[in-house]
Amino acid sequence: MLILLNHPLLTHKLTQLRRKETGTKDFRDTLKEIAGLMAYEITRDLPVKAIKIETPMATCETNELACDVVLVPVLRAGLGMVDGITNLIPSAKVGHIGMSRDHKTLEPMTYYSKFPDNLSQAIVMVLDPMLATGGSSGEAIQVLKDKGAKTIKLVCVVGAPEGVRKIENDHPDVQIFLAGLDKNLNESGYIMPGLGDAGDRLFGTT
Ligand code: PRP
Ligand code: URA
């Protein structure tokens, strides 16, 4: 299921990210801010438990988070979203999955993975700024399911309809969060108008 986030601050920052003039430092800072803003919606349904605490004035019946959260950035570009979310959920554990997309076939290839051991009871958030064909995110989700993950949310910044359809079809149990849904993919598999190559823009490579 697609959840397209719509908030003036998010839209404004996504516009900054898309601009070709935005350099590496501003791209990195803005991607982190966007991930933090998205976290507010992504975490809306996290379970809480009732607790009693003491304020300076009285006993207070309140709630605190009652779940494990695991973030899984898809390398490389997903790394740029981690800090924005761990700032808000410091208890989150972080796994990593390295995927690279073949430039000709657009098929994803997994070159690295390392996950914490609480995947099966955690709320797992797969982070990748770009959902193009959906090959990389879809494969990352499958690897996590094979390792026991049961509740998975896919958090991307910009998506193409092709990628959304693929995830909805292959993983109907996974919620997809986007800050922008673009028109289509070009013949090289880039999102149009998109923001270019997220990994290159984040790390200053070409
Ligand atoms: C990019 C991007 C996604 C993937 C999206 O990664 O960060 O992971 O492509 O495309 P898809 O939906 O068609 O799979 P890339 O393979 O370029 O690796 P990088 O992040 O290391 O640059
Ligand atoms: N990966 C990117 O970084 N950008 C795109 O537009 C598509 C895939």
How would you portray this structure in words?
With 206 residues, the chain is α/β, with parallel strands linked by helices. It has 6 helices and 15 strands. α1 (8-18) packs antiparallel against α2. It is globular and about 60 Å long.
Topology:
Blueprint: E1 2-4, H1 8-18, H2 24-42, E2 48-54, E3 59-65, E4 68-75, H3 82-86, E5 93-94, E6 96-101, E7 108-114, E8 122-127, E9 130-131, H4 135-146, E10 151-155, E11 158-159, H5 161-170, E12 175-178, E13 180-181, E14 184-185, E15 191-192, H6 198-203
Parallel strand pairs: 1-12, 4-5, 4-6, 4-8, 8-10, 9-11, 10-12, 11-13
Antiparallel strand pairs: 2-3, 6-7, 14-15
The structure holds 1-O-pyrophosphono-5-O-phosphono-alpha-D-ribofuranose (PRP) and uracil.
The site of 1-O-pyrophosphono-5-O-phosphono-alpha-D-ribofuranose (PRP) has 22 residues, from strand 4, strand 6, strand 9, helix 4 and helix 6.
What's a quick, concise take on this entry?
The chain has 206 residues and is of the alpha/beta class. It is 31% helix and 32% strand. Strands 1, 4, 5, 6, 7, 8, 10 and 12 form an eight-stranded mixed sheet that branches. It has a three-stranded parallel sheet with strand order 9-11-13.
